[in-house]
Amino acid sequence: MSNYTLAVIEGDGIGPEIVSSAIRILDKVAPGRFTYKPVIAGGKSIDIHGVPLTDEAIATCKNSDSVLLGAVGGPKWDTLPGHLRPERALLGIRKELGLFANIRPARLYPVLKGACPLRQETAEKGFDMVIVRELTGGCYYGERGRKQDADGNTIAFDTETYNQTEIDRIAKVAFELAAKRGKKLCSVDKANVLESSRLWRERVHEIAKSYPDIALSDMLVDNAAMQLVKNPAQFDVMVTANMFGDILSDEASQLTGSIGLLPSASLSNTRCGMYEPIHGSAPDIAGKGIANPIATIVSVAMMLRYAFTMDAEAERIEQAVDKTLQAGFRTGDILDNGTTPLGTKAMTDKILEQL
Ligand code: NAD
Ligand code: IPM
Ligand code: MN
Predict the structure, then answer these.
(1) Site: Important for catalysis. Where (predicted)?
(2) Nearest residue CA, atom 6 of ligand 2?
(3) Taking the domain 1-105+261-355, which CATH number applies?
(4) Which of 32, 185, 240, 265 pairs with 219 at a CA distance of 20 to 30 A?
(5) Is the pTM of this model over 0.90?
(6) What are the domain boundaries of the chain?
(7) Reported ipTM exceeds the 0.95 cut
(8) Annotation marks residue 222 as catalytic
């Protein structure tokens, strides 16, 4: 049996707490299959090395079969200049590894309908969607800076740029995913205002010609934000630009009960991807041992499936999470049933028992 190397970035805030939970689960479903290489990045790297991401950290990620990340960032580093902030580590890894496709599934666990903040009849219908977020373009990577105008007024700018190649490749990922699911793709943009969105829409429709079986629709992002709350069941796969996907996926996460439930996979055209929860370092609960570990645990399931075709192991993890929730165990963020909330470790213990 092959042995894989996994670069592990615990990160900041709740990062170490949730990553240790996920590793316990991984060791149980795939004992001895993974060698862990700890990587320091984000705030911790700033404290130790003075920069958020070192060449050595990048090299370790590149030389591994996959990367598992908790989260980076926190108030301690919030006043540093942009290029020295912890979040730059994340942007750097995404770019260096070519992780252009961010897959963010959002489904309502049937047993968590009571934790969904939507109208009861909307929650009752449930939903199961995947947001495909472009991850290495748009205003996250466009030209940015500050300058003074002739009157001495300070100007700050961040440029939203997309080229045809970037749009085509993310569109293909989304169409391929839709083909394996409900055969519906909604492309979300702001084509009524942004030129980059108009190119986005043109290219998505061009790529659509190769996928005649997929029902493609376009939606403006402001409407999409509203439709998610009105009727999330209408969505199967959604594809959108970097910043729109960031915002809409946090919105979708809360519809499932908590951001502490949503996993993600960041993929390139090679096997090595990065797997992480969509949430951040949650400084408000860091160190308290109460973070929900499920998002990170199911990110590991995504990794097993996407990177290593270990589908059976991935399913075991997902089923163990399902059963644990069905048995009524809850962390504080998804408390819908009046039980005493479990902490991170106790919840992980319950999931391990189901494996
Ligand atoms: P956040 O996602 O960290 O937290 C938002 C809210 O959700 C908080 O109330 C938090 O307690 C709660 N929450 C998040 N994860 C949870 C979990 N697993 N269980 C229970 N509750 C959870 O977003 P934020 O507060 O805007 O950002 C905090 C820091 O994290 C910032 O520095 C931000 O840049 C960074 N961040 C990092 C990543 C990443 O590394 N991938 C992602 C998002 C934000
Ligand atoms: C995410 C985060 C990051 C993003 C930040 C921390 C740079 O919010 O992964 O969703 O905006 O992509
Ligand atoms: Mn985000």
Answers:
(1) 140, 190
(2) 87
(3) 3.40.718.10
(4) 265
(5) yes
(6) 1-105+261-355, 117-130+138-255
(7) yes
(8) yes
